[in-house]
Amino acid sequence: MSSLLAPTRAKNVWPIMIERAKLYLPVSSLHLHLDALDVLSLTGDCSGVPAANVRQLAAARILELLHGSWSPRGGKVFNDFRSDWRLRWDAADPDERVKMEKRCEAIQPNPMQKWMVAGAWPDWSKVAVPVDVGSEHVHKLLFCLPADANFLVSERLKRWALDSVTALLALFSHAWADRYEKFAVSFSPEMAYFIALEAVFLREDPVEELRGALLPAMEWSDARWTAASWAKFTEGREAYANFLPLIGLSVAEVVDRLTHLRDVEPLVFRG
Predict the structure, then answer these.
(1) Do the Cβ atoms of 233 and 214 come closer than 8 Å?
(2) 155 sits in which H/E element
(3) What b-and-e string marks burial along 223-241, b requiring 16 or more CB atoms within 10 Å of the CB?
(4) How many alpha carbons lie under 13 Å from residue 85 in its C-beta half-sphere?
(5) Contact by Cβ (8 Å): 71, 105
(6) Closest C-alpha among 93, 35, 105, 95 to residue 63
(7) Which of 241, 257, 264 is nearest to 38 (CA)?
(8) What phi, psi does 46 have (nearest 5°)?
(9) Which DSSP letter does residue 265 get?
(10) Contact at 8 Å (CB) between 99 and 158?
(11) Gap between the Cα atoms of 167 and 165, Å rounded
């Protein structure tokens, strides 16, 4: 955000902001998450540009970056994950590792080295999002990943939880600029997924008691939901809540950012 809003001598700063947004690359998923929080705080006027426009620009770039990580077609995050084999290896005791090595030796050519360095991908037939899903729908992609509950384990679960909330924040920043269309006139897909993600990660009630908040988004998708999917929503919430204190934040502070924007730019209906 600091680079997007850096001072410039140009009289028309909007084209410069657009170019800066295109060039923005976060150092890590954590930095992207913090930037998504900062975007929520933009109100009023930003160097002569309405804050709502700047929020939409920044949020769109955040969603693009999330899409680059999680897209079914070439998402970069999957190669960084440990394979199922590597997860089992890392958790195994010495005796179990000997058995795993022998199983690999029985296969020719021996696949062990390949399996140790391979990444991990979800079963897209269960997640059921289009292969060419766009960045504007990355929040739907992330919301549907628990349909493959076996995929969301270990560091995969933690990264999914963090990026899901990043998507939630960016979705809200982007959609709130058009709040009378997206949050007032009708029950839009953006509203459904925002309500669902907010319920999963930012509410205190048990996920099982929030079915009414999640079901519209679940029904809007073609994902193959199971009982294990609900468990993954709960695990994701716990992973995010446990992570925040490590960076000096809390769920309540994240909620405050959302509430602040609603208060500063409220929905106002006139009779």
Answers:
(1) yes
(2) helix 154-176
(3) bebeeebbebbebbbebbb
(4) 14
(5) no
(6) 35
(7) 257
(8) -120, 95
(9) S
(10) no
(11) 5
Total count of residues recorded for the chain = 271
Kindly list the averaged pLDDT for each block of 10 residues, start to end, along the chain of length 271: 75 89 95 95 86 94 98 96 96 96 94 93 97 95 98 98 98 88 76 94 92 93 96 97 97 95 82 58
Cα(203)–Cα(165) distance, integer angstroms: 12
pTM for this entry: 0.94
| Cα–Cα distance measured from residue 58 to residue 6, given in angstroms and rounded to the nearest whole number | 14
Residue 214: both structure tokens together: 């999640």
Where are any strands of DSSP class E within the chain?
Answer: 45-46, 49-50
Residue bearing tokens 């979800």: 122
3-class SS shares of the chain: helix, strand, coil, % to 5: 65, 0, 30
3-state secondary structure of 50: strand
The tokens describing 48, both together, are 């002569």
Nearest to 29 by CA among 82, 75, 84: 75
**Separation of CA 100 from chain center:** 35
Side chain identity, residue 101: E
